Amino acid sequence: MTTHIPSFNRRQFVLAVTATASAQALLSSKSVSARDFGPGAAPTRYPDPDVVAIDDEFKKFTQGNAAINRLYHNPKMIWAEGCAWNGVGRYLLWSDIPNNTQLRWLEEDGHVSTFRNPAQNSNGNTFDTLGRQISCEHLTRAVARYEYDGTRTVLTKTYGGKSLNAPNDAVVHPATGDIFFTDPGYGGLMDFEGREAENKDHWPQPYQKEAVYRIDAQTTKVHQLTDEIYKPNGLCFSPDYKKLYVADTGASHYEDAPRNIKVWDVVEQTDLKNGREYASMMFDMTDDAGNTQSKGGFADGIRADVAGNVWASAGWVGAGYDGVHIFNPQGKRIGQILLPEICANVCFGGTKRNQLFMCGSTSLYSVYVGTRGAHFC
């Protein structure tokens, strides 16, 4: 697990998949691949065919009279990431990492505007227990906080005397205010031209082993919680904060890395133990010729609902896979939300916290669901 040699370029990971049905879900071949989300699109007949119940258990967590909506689309938005809901302002915040911008969608009228530019090529965002914005920054390889007056405070950019790789996503424990964050390195490990190197022999190496960390809210000291993971990406707590789930996207760089979501027990609100696989991102898919093959993409951003299900963004495979995968508390895949783009991040929001927002590459999508987010952003 210490070898830092990539097996392929992350940007070349998109597989040429023509699958239109899942052997597990019996997906409709007329579903997401041909769907038009444009302003002149025909209305969607309820229930939405792209909200798929793999198991009947999922049906109680869906809203039968709700369709997937594309709230915003801009072809100049390169990679939408890091969505977080602000309940006081009633807005959704998210990052467009390559464009060095943060955007905001207002619940009041659906208006979208530039929230912050430059944004230090921020990725994940969240809000702390006092309502201050926390951002994971690629450009500065830092975790930063925006104060009430708008000034930016760097909380950390190093560990053990060495630079962090590039913090990716963060969540806040409400009892302590401590910030748990991941540091896989995407975006912060670039070649001299500012791109991930095409030649694996010249691939930039991490400044230190990829890991999950905690920032103590009282002392600001940084604690490494675990490095027993290849590339920790999105993370979320269980509803009772006794478990921490972390998506592993290490297969983008490491040949022996699994495509899965891991889980740890949270000990005394500060430490992690008993790391293990929670759910696999491998998925049996059947093509038009009836051939079934197990495909594995990535879970990126993840969020839990009040029932303990984990809603995981999913992508890098193709139609029938890309979108959101939903797992029950035991790690069984029970449902999917299919999107025409790779989904990088999700969060619950809206007045009742029953609106699932999905960052889909060049678009922002949402759908009302039959449950609520376990946490406030």
Radius of gyration: 19 Å
Q: Report the major sheet.
A: 5 strands, antiparallel
E-strand count: 30
By secondary-structure content and strand pairing, the structural class works out as mainly beta
Q: Gap between N and C termini, in Å?
A: 32 Å
Overall, the morphology is globular
Give the count of structural domains: 1
Mean pLDDT: 89
Number of helices: 0
Regions with pLDDT < 50 over 5+ consecutive residues?
A: 1-31
CATH class: Mainly Beta
Folded structure, characterized:
This protein has one domain: TolB, C-terminal domain (Neuraminidase). Helices cover 0% and strands 42% of the residues. It contains no helices and 30 strands. The chain has strands spanning 21-22, 51-53, 69-73, 80-86, 91-96, 101-106, 112-116, 122-127, 133-137, 142-146, 152-156, 158-159, 162-163, 170-172, 179-183, 211-215, 222-226, 232-237, 243-248, 260-267, 271-280, 282-286, 292-296, 298-304, 310-315, 323-327, 333-338, 345-349, 355-360, 363-368. The strands form eight sheets. A five-stranded antiparallel β-sheet has the order 2-27-26-25-24, with no helix packed on it. Strands 3-30-29-28 form a four-stranded antiparallel β-sheet, with no helix packed on it. Strand 24 (298-304) and strand 25 form a beta hairpin. The radius of gyration is 19 Å and the shape is globular.
Topology summary:
Blueprint: E1 21-22, E2 51-53, E3 69-73, E4 80-86, E5 91-96, E6 101-106, E7 112-116, E8 122-127, E9 133-137, E10 142-146, E11 152-156, E12 158-159, E13 162-163, E14 170-172, E15 179-183, E16 211-215, E17 222-226, E18 232-237, E19 243-248, E20 260-267, E21 271-280, E22 282-286, E23 292-296, E24 298-304, E25 310-315, E26 323-327, E27 333-338, E28 345-349, E29 355-360, E30 363-368
Antiparallel strand pairs: 1-22, 2-27, 3-30, 4-5, 5-6, 6-7, 8-9, 9-10, 10-11, 12-13, 14-15, 15-16, 16-17, 18-19, 19-20, 20-21, 22-23, 24-25, 25-26, 26-27, 28-29, 29-30
